[in-house]
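Progress note, sequence design subtask.
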């Protein structure tokens, strides 16, 4: 069997089944720390644990989905052992999550790398990240290709 293609929909809350709405409420209680366990969260919103587990990875508030910050960066790297690993380590230390990586085959000692990053958890601004990356000795060039919220 092949991979199933996922489809996403934006649906008004008044047409959602009650179990989905309560799942979102329970997730919010857990995220804000108002409750210490799933059991306590589902009890508070009057939802069965089985319904919570069924919907927890499928329903999200729209605002939560649009708060993700994604950027795409282009790098011109020297072809040195561990350079990509060090680049990814620097990005990770800044709190960014790597979404995609594309690296060309090195030619004449240089490789092009394109990274798509989620910066929602970053401890620094995009400008600070780029500045930090420009100072890495094996990175010859850093360009911001795109940003999106």
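Output:
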């Amino acid at each position: 069997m092949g991979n199933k293609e996922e489809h996403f929909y934006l649906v008004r809350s008044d047409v959602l089944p009650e179990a989905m709405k309560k799942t979102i409420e329970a997730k919010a209680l857990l995220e804000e720390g108002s409750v210490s366990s799933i059991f306590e969260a589902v009890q508070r919103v009057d939802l069965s644990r089985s319904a919570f587990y069924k919907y927890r990875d499928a329903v999200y508030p729209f605002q939560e989905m649009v708060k993700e910050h994604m950027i795409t960066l282009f790098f011109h790297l020297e072809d040195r052992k561990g350079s990509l690993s060090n680049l990814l380590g620097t990005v990770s230390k800044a709190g960014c999550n790597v979404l995609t990586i594309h690296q060309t085959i090195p030619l004449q000692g240089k490789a092009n790398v394109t990274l798509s990053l989620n910066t929602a958890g970053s401890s620094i601004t995009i400008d600070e990240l780029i500045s930090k990356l420009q100072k890495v000795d094996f990175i010859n060039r850093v360009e911001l290709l795109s940003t999106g919220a």
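Residues 119 and 125 are 9 Å apart (CA to CA). Work on this subtask will continue into the next period as scheduled.
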